[in-house]
Specification:
Pfam families: MFS_1
Subcellular location: Cell membrane
Membrane topology: Multi-pass membrane protein
Protein name: MHS family MFS transporter
Radius of gyration: 21 Å
Oligomer: single chain
InterPro entries: MFS, MFS_dom, MFS_trans_sf, Sugar_transporter_CS
Number of helices: 23
Number of strands: 0
Helix content: over 70%
């Protein structure tokens, strides 16, 4: 595999993921700042916020189902078809959110339509990262797989920066303008996302590794027969995404709606943390290409478990300087040790014929759990002093994810063509292999 092809694929994955996750993240920002007033005004403020955050989590519920469907398509018919479909579906669903009537106009129909469109967003996201990661990994040179696959997650961070940056001027609007037309603008911008993304992804070539692999008729059945333990390991490890959802959704809502911190300031915390992450992710991925996936991932889990306590505490006392410093350290550096590694770490657990299915199903079940985290912690950690319970919850998730990866094997020196073979050889009877 030539380095030039690997770079082309990584760039396409970066741009596509940035555009795709711009759509996904603007929903989370709107759920934290606006939807409790626009779609759930009949409820008291606390209940309205909880319902708005619940609609954010609903998008994650569709992910496991979408992972089974899109995983089958990607391993049966190719990665490219999945990447084009997911981008188109995400763009259309997001644009439609910006066109929805409010509760004041349509009553209960408004939040119902909101939930339906969020489910479609979740279906799209279920195949996005697994498809982009699989393609990047299979195009990458043997000794640089983590580096090239990390561009998918760098793209995700860029999408989050773009989503937050779009919301900065919107959040600064007068309250009346924000709640009438202002919040719709970021969603309407997804029309640009669709056009640009489709042009880019239609030019991506299918990987040679996939072309020379014997395609299974039922990849999912093969996956659970030969790699069930790795699927379970990825499910547990992927719940570490709770750090991201708690940072981007719960902490924002807690700071603005409970503590009363400025919307614009809290949005800037996310922007700066993600700017740092853009540099940290590829650097930490390159480190894992030299010393292994597990040490970097485990260090990231430990750092996140520790830093969540001072970060939420700094919000509770309204110390803006500490909020910025700790937010950047937590999400920009510590969480990047996880984001930079998991695309290669998870992908290397599976052989080519089931890689997309394995990554999609494992991550999306774990991400579905993580997507519900803001709703769960909002319920258990209400009030100004509720942050400590949220921090305990987050640290426990970090420990669980670290345990799942600690029990797995190291794969960074194994050739791409042999990835996942060890799992098959140890789980399929010798007579069946013969």
């Amino acid at each position: 595999m030539t380095t030039s092809m690997a770079r082309k694929t990584a760039l396409a994955a970066w741009i596509g993921s940035a555009l795709e996750y711009y759509d996904f993240f603007i929903y989370g920002t709107a759920a934290a700042l606006v939807f409790n007033k626009v779609f759930f005004p009949a409820a008291d403020p606390a209940t309205g916020t909880l319902l708005a955050l619940a609609t954010f989590g609903v998008g994650y519920l569709a992910r496991p189902l979408g992972a089974f469907v899109l995983g089958h398509v990607g391993d049966r018919f190719g990665r490219k078809k999945v990447l084009v479909f997911t981008l188109l579906l995400m763009g259309v669903a997001t644009f439609a959110v910006g066109c929805l009537p409010t509760y004041a106009t349509a009553g209960v129909l408004a939040p119902v339509l909101l939930v339906v469109l969020r489910l479609l967003q979740g279906l799209s996201a279920s195949g996005e990262q697994a498809g982009a990661n699989s393609m990047s990994l299979e195009h990458a040179p043997e000794h640089r797989r983590a580096y090239f696959t990390s561009f998918t997650l760098s793209g995700t961070q860029a999408g989050q920066i773009l989503a937050t940056a779009i919301f900065l001027p919107v959040a600064a609007l007068p309250q009346e303008d924000l709640l009438t037309w202002g919040w719709r603008v970021p969603f309407w911008c997804s029309a640009i996302v669709v056009v640009v993304g489709l042009v880019i992804r239609r030019k991506i070539d299918e990987t040679a590794e996939f072309k020379r692999t014997k395609v299974a008729k039922l990849p999912v059945a093969t996956l659970f027969r030969t790699h069930w333990a790795d699927v379970l390991r990825v499910v547990v490890a992927a719940t570490i995404a709770s750090v991201s959802t708690i940072f981007t959704v719960y902490a924002l809502s807690y700071a603005v709606n409970t503590i009363g911190l400025a919307r614009t300031s809290m949005l800037w915390v996310g922007v700066l943390a993600n700017v740092v992450a853009l540099a940290a992710i590829p650097l930490l991925a390159r480190l894992s290409d030299k010393i292994g996936r597990k040490p970097v991932f485990l260090a990231g889990c430990g750092a996140c478990a520790i830093l969540i306590f001072p970060y939420l505490w700094s919000i509770s006392i309204g110390a803006y300087g500490l909020v910025f410093a700790l937010g950047i350290l937590l999400f920009g550096v510590a969480y990047s040790a996880i984001n930079g590694i998991w695309p290669s770490l998870y992908g290397e657990m599976f052989s080519t014929e089931v890689r997309l299915s394995g990554m999609a199903i494992g991550t999306q079940i774990g991400f579905a759990i993580a997507g519900l985290a803001p709703s769960v912690v909002s319920a258990i950690g209400s009030g100004r002093d509720g942050w400590f319970g949220v921090a305990i919850f987050t640290a426990a998730v970090c420990a669980l994810s670290a345990g799942a990866i600690a029990t797995g094997r190291e794969t960074f020196t194994r050739p791409t063509a042999e990835l996942g073979r060890l799992a098959q050889e140890t789980r399929v009877p010798a007579a069946a292999r013969t």
